[in-house]
Amino acid sequence: MKFLSSFASLLFLSSLLFGQEVAMLPKDETGKYIYYEVVSTGLAEDSLKLRSLDFISKNKKEIKLKSIKDAKTVLASGKIVITKSLAMLSRPTGEITYHFNFEMGAQKYRFWLTNFEFIPYQKDRYGNFVPSTTVGIPLEKEPKKSNADQWEDYRLQAAKYATSFAKRFKDHLANKVVISKPAAEKKVVSKSW
Amino acid sequence: MKNHIAALSLLLLSTASIAVAQEKASPLEISGSVDTYFKYDFSKVANIPTYFANEQNSVSLGMIDLALKKTTGKASFVGELSFGPRGQFQSIPDAIGGYDPATNGFNIQNLYINYAFTDKFTMTAGYMGTFVGYEVISPMANFNYSTSYLFGSGPFQNAGLKGTYSFSDKVSLMAGVFNDWNVYQDFNGVSHFGAQLMVSPVEGWSAYVNFLTGRSAGAGADGTIIDLTTSYQITDKFKLGLNAADYGVSNDGGGYTGAALYPQYAFTPSVAIGARAEYFTFKGTGGAPDASVTSFTLSGNLKAGGLTFIPEVRFDNDSDEYIGFVKSNLTPSKTAAQFSLAAVYSF
């Protein structure tokens, strides 16, 4: 009996630890899921830009730089690999792609993740899982009844990822000092004119 | 009670050790597929020699395919086993290189080890699905269930050692040395050289130019294949694929040449229709004339979760009567037509 009650307490504890509710992402004015945050900061714009680019380059497996617009905006695209897991086994079933936008302003910056689209994986000739198409299905699209649970899980995973991404991004911008590479030492060749 | 506590402690300890282990290695991936089909040739004789969907008026087996993959740091392996006609004597050789259904028992489609030296350069060694061609053995990765003449005539697997360098997301180059086509052991040394150039000029468009040349054990001439495999997702719903290949054997030793076009239209993510139009020529050997065949296949893909139904009709025209189609009374025919319905479940 004592054992059972200890086991139940353990289960309850672990459910508290691991079973934290993840809220679904809100939608923007166009009806797309979005993670949006404005952050106040004391950092200068050039530091913010350097740090954001450093974050992207250090996480290149999940996010890739697309362009830098008007020196204040960084655009990137990323992907979240969705895996189905059971005990120690797992396999990727697809990926959710997204767009990342970062804008710097006076004493603040804002960033948002949007355009979440699911692309199913299929196995290639070498036994690896690869995207089956280049056309993603927007997460906003209402699923069929048979696929509803799975689709809900993709939305939750996108929300969970966006929250974790935002935390890592803000930490990186707040704490990571990026030293720009010093310019190569200029040598004067005195033997030639 | 002590036993329970000990068991619980062990469980917690093992969970903790799993968590630690997972930091270093990815979990073991297990995936696979199962397929079965019914085919009916309208002449009531199994005419069209497509690989795999070849048994007439029968609910027949494809294969059960099981793949394992694991990545630890920069190293990974893939081991893929298959059982059933499609996965054994119809697609992989036995120990002595034959396709005898009585002796075939190797069951290996892929068995290789991969090491990523850098983000851009990887090396792979082992027995791998071929890099040549559009269609593949696994029914999960093909749109049509029956396969093309190009697929059936080209290599299925290439064992070897290859290096792949990615210049960018848009360009990569592979080069390697390989055994003879479709053998676990090369009896005349590692005698083939192969290369693949991949370019992806715009998003959704990828093209592979493949090259494989060498002399197989016991052959009196060299065989060289040049293959173009490309696909372009032109709109959200329309995709176009193309495969063109030329295989020539020196000293007038024959070979083949052909091209196949693969237009596909997706009405929804779960419902799509696709065609394959193929022109294929068997090159004559020793001065014999070439023989050509045309083939048109129309397939549907109806998906529900991991299950895909593939209803399909196929019409072949063997104008040179090279393949030997017959009518229901067994007299020669230049044409053949068939219907098939396949179910493929992937997991």
- The total strand number of chain B stands at 16
Helix count of chain A?
A: 3
Percent of residues in beta strands of chain B: over 45%
Structural class of chain A: alpha+beta
Radius of gyration of chain B: 22 Å
CATH topology of chain A: Alpha-D-Glucose-1,6-Bisphosphate, Chain A, domain 4
- Termini of chain A, distance in Å? 94 Å
What fold name stands as the CATH topology of chain B?
Answer: Porin
**Biggest interface, chains and residue tallies:** A-B, 29 and 39 residues
Tell me the domain tally of chain B.
Answer: 1
Query: What is the quaternary state of this protein?
Result: heterodimer
How much helix, percentage-wise, in residues of chain A?
25-40%
Biggest sheet layout of chain B: 16 strands, antiparallel, barrel
Your description of this structure?
- The complex is a heterodimer of chains A (193) and B (347).
- Chain A has 193 residues and is an alpha+beta fold.
- Chain A is 31% helix and 34% strand.
- Chain A has helices spanning 2-18, 45-58, 148-175; strands at residues 34-40, 63-69, 73-86, 89-105, 108-123, 129-131, 137-138.
- In chain A, strand 4 (89-105) and strand 5 form a beta hairpin.
- The longest helix of chain A is centred in the C-terminal third of the chain and has 28 residues, at 148-175.
- The model of chain A is unreliable at 11-19 (pLDDT under 50).
- In chain B, strands 1-2-3-4-5-6-7-8-9-10-11-12-13-14-15-16 form a 16-stranded antiparallel barrel.
- The longest helix of chain B is centred in the N-terminal third of the chain and has 23 residues, at 2-24.
- The two termini of chain B are 41 Å apart.
- In chain B, 35% of the residues are buried.
- Chains A and B meet through helix 1, strand 4 and strand 5 of A and helix 1, strand 1 and strand 4 of B.
